[in-house]
Every structure is written in C-alpha cells, then in structure tokens.
Amino acid sequence: MALYVQKYGGTSVGTVDRIEAVADKVQRFKQQGHDIVVVVSAMSGETNRLIGLAKGIQDKPNAREMDVLVSTGEQVTIALLCMALDKRGLSARSYTGSQIKILTDSAHTKARIQDIEVTAMQADLQAGRVVVVAGFQGVDAEGNITTLGRGGSDTTGVALAAALKADECQIYTDVDGVYTTDPRVVQEARRLERITFEEMLEMASLGSKVLQIRAVEFAGKYKVPLRVLSSFEDGPGTLITIEDDSAVEKPVISGIAFNRDEAKLTVMGVPDVPGVASRILGPVSRANIEVDVIVQNVAADNTTDFTFTVHRNDYEATEQVLSQVAEELGAREVIGDNKIAKVSIVGVGMRSHAGVASKMFDALADENINIQMISTSEIKVSVVIAEKYLELAVRALHSAFDMDVNDSVSE
Ligand code: ADP
Ligand code: ASP
Ligand code: MG
Fold this sequence. Notes:
By secondary structure, this protein is α/β, with parallel strands linked by helices. It folds into two domains: 171 residues, Acetylglutamate kinase-like (Carbamate kinase); 148 residues, 2-Layer Sandwich (VC0802-like). It is 34% helix and 26% strand. The chain contains 13 helices and 20 strands. The strands form five sheets. It has an eight-stranded mixed beta sheet with strand order 3-6-2-1-9-11-12-10, with helices on both faces. A four-stranded antiparallel beta sheet has the order 13-18-20-19, sandwiched between helices. Helix 7 runs parallel beside helix 9. The two termini are 40 Å apart. The mean pLDDT is 94. Bound molecules: adenosine-5'-diphosphate, aspartic acid and magnesium ion. The site of aspartic acid has 13 residues, from helix 7.
C-alpha cells in the first residue's frame, strides 16, 4: 500500500472519454489498495482559449483578473473527474487551490507556493476517499486566486507529494516518459529509464516542456520521487533520480533541449571601455527584461559589439531600451534577429569527458549550420543558430552523440 500523487495533464483530460479513462486508472490503483491524490490540468486548449478571450478585450489584462479567469479551467476538470469516480462507486472529493489552501505569494500569473494545508486531505484519505485537486492554482494571504505559471499543474503535483510525504509523484502525460529529445521532433528519440534531477532541471530550463522547471526544482529540494508516465499505456516511464549510479557506463550526453522563444540583439561599435556591459544591461534589467546568452567581441578599432538574447516577447521592448542606450554610448547601431533558436546538449557525463563541445560544433559544421553564439556550463553546451536550421541541428546532434533508438547506449 502506497500513497501516490498522480497528475494528469491537459491531453489526458482533454475529453469526457479521457476523463473516464483517468477514472478507470485511478480505480485500478484504489483496487490495489493504494491511497490516491489526483491533480488535474484544464482540458487541453482551455487555458489558451481563456487567455485568448482576455486578449480580445485588453492587450495586457490585469494580472489578478487573469488568474481569476485562467484558474477556471482546472475547476471544470476536478468536478468532472469526481463525477466519473462517483459513477464507478468510488468516493471522491474535489478541491480548488484555495479550498485546500495552497498558500502562495501574490505574484499573479507566476506565484510561488509557500505552504500547503494537509489536514483535510489526510482526513479524506483516512476515510478512503480519492482527493482531486485543481492544478496550477493557489491563494495568497489576502484570499486572492493566484496561478503558478504555464505548466504549473506539475508543480502542484510535486508540492502536494512533498507536503503529504507521498511515496511517489506520478506525472501522467501524452508521452510515455522523458526522451533524449522531444519525440515529436526527432522520431529516433529514445525514452530514458532514468535521468538525474540536475539534468532534468537543465533540460526543463533549456526548453523541454515535458516538466515545468519549478516542479523539478521543488522535487529536487524536497527529494520527492518523481516519475513521468503515459496516461494512455502502461509502462515504467522515466524516473527522475537524485544520483544515477545505476548505469556503469553512462552516456556523456543524456538529452538535447531546444527553444524557439528567444531573440537576439546586438549593440554594434561601442567604445571598448570599462563599464560598457553594465551600462547596456543595467537599463535592460531595470525594464524587467531577463537576459540569457551574452557574447562580447572586440574589434581592431577599439570598439566592441555586444550581443545578448532575451525572450522573444521582450524583443520590441528591448529594442526600445537599447536605442536610447546606444545613443548615450555613442554606439554605431543596434541590430536584432528574432528568428533564432537555442539548441543545448545536456549531460552530467560532460564533467568527466573532454571534447564534447568540439564534437557538437563538428556535427553542426558538417550540416553547414552557422553557430551565432555559444554558452556553456558544467553539464551543458548551448548554441544559438538560425531558427530554420533547428530541426536539422537537433537531428544531427542526436545522431552524432549516438542517441538514436538503434544506437548502443554504452559506446
Ligand atoms: P501535459 O499537458 O500532460 O502537461 P505537456 O505538453 O506539458 O503535457 O508535456 C508533454 C510534451 O512535452 C510531449 O508531448 C512532448 O512533445 C514534449 N517534450 C518536449 N521535450 C520532451 C522530452 N525530452 N521528452 C518527452 N517529451 C518532451
Ligand atoms: N492549464 C495550465 C496550462 O495550460 C496548467 C497546466 O496544464 O499545467 O498551462
Ligand atoms: Mg505540462
């Protein structure tokens, strides 16, 4: 007998039939004697539909009202799932984030969980009931509805598992685990039996949206056993582990992540004097714009070109900030490109292997793909390339690092 927190994503509850299939699955776990807390997302497409309604009225709708709006998607699915469970003779109760009391800060649309009250859930479990909780939402100290950012139901699942000390947090989705790269882009992608928190965190933050970044952070911090599995077929899924000492011969690269959400800007011909980086990036950060990859090149004429990437949504705002900065600094011009993509290879094995980056660059050169920017950390190498080459680059790297389905893992 175990306690499982099971999170079902949008596609898994996308129709009434699928909600019934989730109820069947929960029933099977109950029949095996397990205690189950279910977290559900809104039906697939619903959160986007709600955001679309709001944008039809205002370009930048008030964040508090946005949360009141988008949290309704999950309120629908908790009720429908409880009805489906009831139909099967199972006793179940639905809860919104504020009913449970998932207490968050007041950062609307990107709130962070601060505390979770477990008494009501524990009483339900004790009474043999299935607890069904709305993902993605919480409540702040003043009673305002908050949401946790896109994909936030994953975080609700992990946070409930931590608070209830569950035996496992199971993330049921439309793929049967975490793959070497997005299986919708590379057919040869392979399901991983295990991946470390550290690698999963890099993969998530570099663009693999299979798990929300905060969910992985949370699970790592509170040591929540976390597994990604398919809603539609049985299988072991992928276990996210603290340390992976199971494989004697680990591959150097565990996965490839990519992201099309960035744009690149360059301030050209800035006098190469101390303080330039701070004078360029200071105003950008004061405008609340986050900067990702940065590259600075010095030319023979004692000027420098300063390039960095930001989220694509911040492209125009950054351009505006920079035009002002460029004038102040006496720069030649500001140029930009929002048709770029970032591709990253990730693996803890990189720490003990030399030549990983050059192998990556060779593979891209063989395909004639120009690298515009490079950034590295201990367990990842990222490159910025033209967006049109993204899929070609991911496929080339997947094969160069022997990750394709038919390649040996221990080479
Ligand atoms: P849910 O609605 O269940 O939360 P998501 O769409 O958020 O599902 O996440 C699942 C999707 O993540 C998959 O359909 C897949 O296309 C994508 N994905 C991206 N990278 C990976 C990866 N490395 N492994 C598995 N899936 C990935
Ligand atoms: N429904 C929310 C979203 O689409 C939360 C989630 O699905 O995890 O982002
Ligand atoms: Mg998701």
